[in-house]
TrEMBL record:
Keywords: Transport. Belongs to the ABC transporter superfamily. It comes from bioreactor metagenome. PANTHER family: AMINO ACID IMPORT ATP-BINDING PROTEIN (PTHR43166), PHOSPHONATES IMPORT ATP-BINDING PROTEIN PHNC (PTHR43166:SF4). This is Glutamine transport ATP-binding protein GlnQ. Gene3D superfamilies: P-loop containing nucleotide triphosphate hydrolases. SUPFAM superfamilies: P-loop containing nucleoside triphosphate hydrolases. InterPro entries: MetN_ABC_transporter-like, P-loop_NTPase.
Amino acid sequence: MLELAREGSTMVIVTHEMQFARAVADRIIFVDKGEIVEENIPSEFFTKPKTERARQFLNMFEFDAVKGIENKKSK
């Protein structure tokens, strides 16, 4: 999939792998309970989510300003 993205292929991918999504996506569409909750470019979605639900979801992950997203936080 990464190679297809680099070649400019259009894809719709459903994933919980945030590092992959941030690396390859042109747009992020966040869906909760079957409804589109938020749509944005990755740089905005991951740093300034518009909705509380997206913020709650993203808070499950560790962020590194240089490397991007790391694994889910351990609780």
